[in-house]
Amino acid sequence: MRASRLLSILIMLQMRGRLSAETLSQEFEVSVRTIYRDIEHLSAAGVPVYAERGRDGGFELHEGYRTKLTGLTRSEAEMLLLAGAGGAASDLGMGAEAAAAQLKLLASLPADDGASAQRIASRFHLDPAPWYARIEPPGVLPQLASAVWNDRRIRIGYESWKNTVTRELDPLGVVLKAGVWYLIAGPGGEARTYRVSNVTSLELLDTTFKRPARFDLSRHWASSSRAFEARLLSERATIRVSEEGRRLLRDTYPAASQAVIAKSRKSRPAGWVTAEIPVEDFARSARQLLRLGAEIEILAPPALRKAVADEAARLVKLYS
Prior knowledge:
Blueprint: H1 2-16, H2 21-28, H3 32-44, E1 49-52, E2 58-61, H4 74-82, H5 86-91, H6 95-108, H7 111-123, H8 141-150, E3 152-159, E4 164-177, E5 180-186, E6 192-195, E7 199-208, H9 217-232, E8 235-241, H10 243-252, H11 254-262, E9 265-266, E10 273-279, H12 282-289, E11 296-300, H13 302-319
Antiparallel strand pairs: 1-2, 3-4, 3-7, 4-5, 5-6, 8-10, 8-11, 9-10
Helix pairs in contact: 1-3, 2-3, 4-7, 6-7, 10-11, 12-13
């Protein structure tokens, strides 16, 4: 276990540069003291790692040092080929490079391990797009990927909810979420989220920017996603829902479905339950919940009940 962690620390320092003991301890879910001991073991093994003190200090490899070890186990190689990144790499303009990397990875493995990894890749496929969606990658995506990779500042035209605006941004990363691409960028390293399909124009500027030393894309995305969901689903509603309604909720309203599964109480008639669920603004929530037809009843708040009744009345009038 320690040998694997030592190699992982070495590769992380090589890839990311200076990292603090706190960052490494969170990454590997061990104590800070354990990280200090691991660094001592690396140093004793001849790895030129040194500590930089101060507010932005941490551990760093001497400039120019590169390890030739990949440390890939058979299972890790299989997971790389199972990662399903082929489609995403093509969207980013890196499809040929991704295919070449997979071939080189297979060639670097022992014969039996390479055959096993290729077998995994030929039997499992990940498709992030929802049903009935034919996703066309935004045309600016390869240019955005290049700007992210090379730390190039960009100027974009962006279609927001209100109007089209122009922004100069430092692109920090791109994220694929449920078949939709998002750009994480901002002036001066202040990370904000932009939907790539809303980018109407893109210009790569001649200036570069300094990437924030402590910015971690995956952690930022996880944190900002939770904050977005909390802002969006800021209201609460009490519902009574049937067994069939609960099945429909799983497909149409996952957040509500999770709330019902987590906490509900039996109701009448048999098979029905009462629960509290998170909802958006009442006008939008009324349309979402009406998808369940007569398999759900809104008990509270009165404003949402009225919004559902008003929307249902409009439907009756439309079809009368």
